[in-house]
Amino acid sequence: FFSLFVGLLLCGCVSVPETIRDIQDLKQDHLSYIDKSSSDRELVTADVQKKIDAHYNSLYFEPWHREKPFYQIDIIERGFKKYRKNLGYGENGRKHRKSWLKALTAGANLENYPNSGIVAITVENADVRVLPTHKPRFANASYSHNGYPFDTLQESSVAPNTPVFISHTTKDKAWVLAETPYVVGWMSVRSLAFVDNDFIKAWETGQYAVFIKDKVSLYDAYGRYLFKAPLGAMFPKIEEDDTTMTLLVAVADNDGRACLTRAVVTKETATAKPLKLTNVNIAKLANELINEPYGWGGLYQNRDCSSLTKDIFAPFGIWLPRNSIDQAKEGGTFIEFQDLSPEEKESMILKQGIPYLTLLWRRGHIMLYIGNYQGKPLIFHNIWGVRTKDLLGRVGQRIVGHAAITTLNPGMEFRNDDTPESNYVNSILGMTILVNPKEPKILKQ
Fold it and tell me: What is this structure's pTM?
């Protein structure tokens, strides 16, 4: 029997489930895990949330009020220097040549940085790149954690109609160095329209709407398609009735300047910002993103772990940085797990963590703690895959590839080890309380 089992294992003939056990066993519905008796209770007062939201808006619009670049040349040069010794692989599975990076470096014209200092607004879902190119750079040519889809040149994606400060332009004027509210990098000039003081004054109304549904198609007054607005995107609100709201939307004219138009959306897709901070509202937004495909750096207009958490809390006016380590260290009150055993970590999460208001952080990954389930913490996160190890000691990876509710040990059925990499509890470095209803405060960022 044993020899037959090993033979089947070596031949790959043993049937395996399509997904991990957690996703099969745990109900993928956030409304199932919240306390129904208090789910609609406001977690902070309206006055406190108004101040939190004002802080969010000040950070969001800050790029329009800069007089000079925020980033020094050494920060901008990092991407070019980083890949000189390891050029990586292109979309064809072949190694990049030195001439590839040399051409990008010459075209960037960084010896004249900064050569610009104007403000703009995105007019589409825009990619922010480490280098001024749409072409990818993979660490290796295989379909793995270091290969596809992990294009290391993808810094982030930015929603339509996001404020931007442009500090630099490439020689061919096809790319600009864009300082957005939460990330800096190279952006195609076609993704932008330039704004002036009159436009900014008309846009910063103080009355905003935010999308609570994902990838909502927007159209102008003539029915022409504009773009898809992601959950968490905000726009000026100018009119509303019982069922709809009219938003200001920016589009580019033939000269590349931003001009204003209007788009009507239903109140099922967008709401006045900030949305009331309650457990049921957080759960509803999280449900909108259940099963969303994983998108490294926002590729294909999908989300990775940190953009998932960032966008869930945007409608409430809770500002989160873009990357996981910054969310953990700057997003709220950080509680470090240094020198704690796995059992002590779990105990602290269950005792001190606030469901739906607490982030858990391990290096390179951020998760939303959603509560105690049968004595164990549950999390919501966008996850690419889990480590596997078979009976013969072969290490691999099981692709998950979407946002899901799991335990802190997802995919344990595919492992035969207990290394730090295999169990999230072992590698969690700390947790972050975003807003403590008992002691709410406005963070200075």
Answer: 0.93
